[in-house]
Amino acid sequence: MPAVTPHGTRIRKRSAMLVTALTAALFLSGCIADRTGQGSTTPVPTPTVALQTVPDSNAPLETTQASNKIPVYWIGRSDTDTFLYREFRDNPGNENPITTALRIMMSQKPLDHDFFTPWQNPGSLASSISGKNVVTVDVSRDAFNSNLDAGMAQRAVQELVYTATAAAASSGLIDSGQQIKVTILVDGHTDYMAFGQVKLGDPMVRDASMVAPVWIIDPQEDLTLPAGPIKFNGRSTDPSKKLHWQILRDNPNGDKSSYLAGQTTASTVPGQGGAFSLTVGLGAGRYELRVSLVGPNDADVATDTRIFSVR
């Protein structure tokens, strides 16, 4: 686990930009691609535009899914603040989905190297659900063996709340159409001070302010995808703001070149939760996708990145 500073984790990576001469087909709803970089005067062909329909499963509130994947939340930095991000992990089926997701959160590392968790592998962990959409998590106190400030402690507790409710909703154990609460017990008792900062015992709900402003959902970090059209899904917490996106490509010398760039907006359709989608045709190589929320003066105010390979 990386060291925790008083305000969060390490700053997310930034990439140098060089020049590459490559070809790609771009299909994007509501944006125009351009190729940028120093020393290149290659004209950019007009892309073919195709409308994208983003399913509700890409919205921030998890829905029941028929798969062996389980949602797990982590903590990561976006510019000057720290937020929650979600990954889907394999579900071995050894325990109920809530306990399994929380055990992954507390004992494994995120797939994305920019994320982390301050939780420690607990000696005991159990979960149950009442008939009132309340998830109860009972964890041993050794899970809290990290020195956190108040802000990071609150994020860690919300990381547990988000993971427990996501696992319960996506597995169909609770009614995702109603508010879900989480009660955290420590060794069977209430009133424990989590990380010495947050009092536990009362039912808690998701704090919407903890979710990342912009968030790449698919593909997940370090996946290898077949060459051709690659679809990217994500979400924004503010659909009224534009999104800048950019794809960088790794060069043989280890540097990165700006390969494609464009602009899009997130959906404002009810139930789609600020979802956005874009599809880009890519050949073999290793790439990085960067998506940023656009703030005042057209400046990027929040950025998420995703590294992947194409073969």
Give a structural overview.
By secondary structure, the chain is mostly beta strands. Helices cover 10% and strands 35% of the residues. It has 2 helices and 17 strands. It has helices at residues 97-107, 150-170, and strands at residues 26-28, 69-78, 81-90, 115-116, 125-129, 134-139, 181-186, 193-194, 198-199, 214-218, 224-225, 228-236, 242-250, 256-265, 275-282, 285-294, 300-310. The strands form 5 sheets. Strands 11-17-16-13-14 form a 5-stranded mixed sheet, with no helix packed on it. Strands 1-15-12-10 form a 4-stranded antiparallel sheet, with no helix packed on it. Strands 3-2-4 form a 3-stranded antiparallel sheet. A hairpin with a 5-residue loop joins strand 16 and strand 17. Helix 1 runs antiparallel to helix 2 (150-170). The longest helix is centred in the middle third of the chain and has 21 residues, at 150-170. It is globular and about 55 Å long. It starts with 25 loop residues before the first strand and ends with a strand.
Structure keywords:
311 residues; mainly beta; five-stranded mixed sheet; four-stranded antiparallel sheet; 2 helices; 35% strand
Give a nutshell description of this structure.
With 311 residues, the chain is mostly beta strands.
